[in-house]
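hi! just following up on the protien thing from before. the input was this:
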Amino acid sequence: MRRLLCILLLCATPALAQAPNSGQARKVLLDRMLDQLKTAQSEAEAASIEARVEHIWIEQGSPAVTLLVSRGLRSLQAGANQDAVDDFDAALTLDPSVDEIYHQRALARFALGDTRGAIRDIEETLKREPRHFAALRTLSRIAASRQDWKGAYAAWLKLLDIDPKTPGGAEKLKDLKRRALGDVT
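and the predicted 3d structure came back as:
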């Protein structure tokens, strides 16, 4: 693993010499797209914007980091959750500034049953990017799995503040509100 990390560090060096404005341009683009989520006219439009934002979040790091994140995502999809955590750990070693890695590691940790670790990673994600709608969705899911309906409802409300047309958002809000507050009509 150390050998792989050294190779990845060497591969990442050219990426470190990128134009200094590329990060700023990415931030401007993300800000614009996150603003567009608030004004999306339909769930389909919101889903399209969400997908583009998530793609940008995943590819924020160097090529080596992106490679590790991609490998972690494949492991996560295959149910190899510990391998996914290991890949995300390695990516964070290379570049701890990529917010999405913390979110993806939270998903892998949650799948492993490490709820506390998952929540810590979600908190880190939200500290770095408070508008991270996917992290709020995951936080709501984690709270619901613990039958913390008020926590799940609160996280979902924050999600809808950022992304009012998130697919299935209104129905999920009704369900969580009913569970958190009782049969409110």
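Residues 9 and 120 are 26 Å apart (CA to CA).
Confidence is low (pLDDT under 50) at residues 1-21.
cheers
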